[in-house]
Amino acid sequence: MHALLASCLFLSLVSGAIIPKRTRTGNGSQGNGNQGNQGNGNQGNQPSGNQGNQGNRSFNVQLGPRPYYLVDDMDEGPLKEKLQSCSEGPFTVSDFVMAHRGAPLQFPEHTLESYSAARRMGAGVIECDVAFTNDKQLVCRHAQCDLHTTTDILNRTDLADKCTTPFTPATNGTSAKALCCTSDITQAEFKTLCGKMDGSNPNATTVAEYLDGTPYFRTDLYSTCGTVLTHNEYIDLVNGWDLKFTPELKTPEVEMPFQGYTQQQYAQDMIDAYKNAGIDPSRVWAQSFLPDDIFYWIDNEPEFGAQAVYLDSRVDTVQGYANATTTLPDLAARGVQIVAPAFFALTKVDNATGAIVPSEYALAAKAAGLEIVTWSFERSGWLKSGGDYYYQYVKSVINNDGDMYNVLDVLVQQVGITHFFSDWPATLTYYASCFGL
């Protein structure tokens, strides 16, 4: 019965997308205890851009129980009453909802299965973090060097030795380590990998133990052999769903130029993929943490540059936050139109009233005429103790999971964000549908 229920839930999430049949022909077995024998699990799988029902705006959005759990967990008040009044929908696809790596709260990030789940939950924009392989091809991975925690590469006897740093077990108080990069292997080799839930065990003495490190608030239920995707496959998939794109040009973790491959060519290759596919620039939000990438697109691809998103990590330190706040007008003068700090930087607590209010950064961005996008919802686990990184400036007024909707409401109604990345799109889709976003 439990297996049947799990199967039905998965099918309800990904229905409308044809999941290619896997053929496991490789070496070894996946380290995570729930993953079985993997090997070359995805070899030859080519997701079709025509999968699913065309015209996504009319298909059946499914949210599951989590938004209802969060609303029930809220403190009594007008916002809770408003959200409760929307319990029966209708729930629709919204461009306000950006799927952060797909739906990695429960599905292996940047996989076909994760993207399919995000689509089913109403995300109007889906993200591919873009990294390059050894043969200079673009693939979807959150970081250039995360294959050791997001795939089964360490368990692959034919590929593990190609890692920048092969697995070394924990010993004498020293943590286990490994470092495997997309640039260590070719695109063809990348396509043979199985995606898994991101995580590792620093106390591991074996590869199997190292791969078994999924965070407590996530699950391995669907981490059987995620179908990893190239950037072009992602474009075909999302275009076939009539959704929109937000590719992030990941900051290289190898010295550039890499075998003659320059940062500028890397930035251009990402944009060229959309031009070659005939994608209208208005459907693409290109992102980068590097200002020079944003400036490159503004100067050389102005149609894409007009919607380029500067991921502002300067806010992570007190001094950086102050500098970022005062220099936002300079970014606007350079042609940047959209900034995206982590959402903690956009709110604070009013000491006089105890209310969550817009931060100095948020006010400065609006004064400079900048659009604000932010990240990443549903990435914090339990909030009963005030939350983590993403809630650091409002921690004193956060004491239950439902409080995330209070923060979201301030971000929308007072800060004025236009899009929000989430690790579980359903939570945002519920709010977006309720408030007509």
Strand content: 5-15%
Query: What's the oligomerization state?
Result: single chain
Rounded mean pLDDT is 90
User: Count of DSSP helices?
Assistant: 15
Please describe the biggest sheet, giving its number of strands, its sense, and whether it closes into a barrel.
9 strands, mixed
Number of strands: 15
C-alpha end-to-end distance = 38 Å
Radius of gyration: 21 Å
Outline type: globular
Provide the succession of SSEs.
Answer: HHHEHEEHEEHEHEHEHEHHEHEEEHEHEH
List segments where confidence is low: pLDDT < 50 over at least 5 consecutive residues: 1-46, 48-55
- Name the structural class: alpha/beta
Query: Portion of residues in helices?
Result: 25-40%
What does this structure look like?
By secondary structure, the chain is of the alpha/beta class. Helices cover 31% and strands 14% of the residues. It is built from 15 helices and 15 strands. It has helices spanning 2-14, 66-73, 78-84, 112-120, 147-150, 187-190, 207-211, 231-240, 263-276, 291-300, 302-305, 318-333, 360-367, 403-415, 425-435; strands at residues 94-99, 123-132, 138-140, 165-168, 177-179, 194-195, 226-227, 244-249, 287-288, 309-311, 338-340, 347-349, 356-358, 371-377, 419-422. Strands 1, 2, 3, 8, 9, 10, 11, 14 and 15 form a 9-stranded mixed beta sheet that branches. Helix 12 runs parallel beside helix 13 (360-367).
